[in-house]
Design goal:
By secondary structure, the protein is of the alpha/beta class. The chain has ten helices and six strands. The chain has a six-stranded mixed beta sheet with strand order 3-2-1-4-5-6, with helices on both faces. The chain starts with a strand and ends with a helix.
Amino acid sequence: MNILFFDMEFANGKIPGSVYSFGYVRTNGKFKLTEPQTDLLMNPECEWNEYVRHRILAYPMHLVKEASPFPGHYKRICKLLRRADLVVGFAVSNDTAALRKDCERYGYKPPVFQCLDLERVCKKLPLHREAHGLSGCVKAWCRFIPENQHRSDGDAYATMLLLKAVCEQTGVRPKELKKKFSDCMIPSVPPQAPAAEKNDPTPIKPDRPYYYRRRHTHKSDEQTSAGKE
């Protein structure tokens, strides 16, 4: 079984598609890494949020500016996402929306895949309901605070550790996750609305924008959401 855990970071949450890193971890069905955790840096080619630039960015700015923009990583990202037997993220609607926007921005077709939203899984389970955010859930389920927070590959690795703990403590095997938590599987591209609904004049309340993010529970959450939002 090929499981892909991924996370993305944004230079400015108010600019759709401002992705500056795509981090991932690949494992087999026993959560053993099949390759080293990886962070793909990319130049977001946009104005940076000052808080993100000075408090969130885990790399020297010159490395990010020298990196290839999104088109240079598009094929690799699509290959990773499409070939995985299971794709997992935390609060993944933020990431899938940003990925679609970057594809739209550069004229590419967004990859189509299903992703298990581990945040939704944790909210459904009776254990550790008091936990919130990625770091809060890792602390509750794994009994330690994850390292390299706000770095994409670090968050992807923390997501892997969290799912491993969830499987071990609930007795659910990785190959059963899609079926058992089918309502937590998020499509990377939302399905098209039927024609009748498209013509319905009734206004629809929009979903929260992709940059509304509260991955971590610590003192600077409100400030962080202003950057990654």
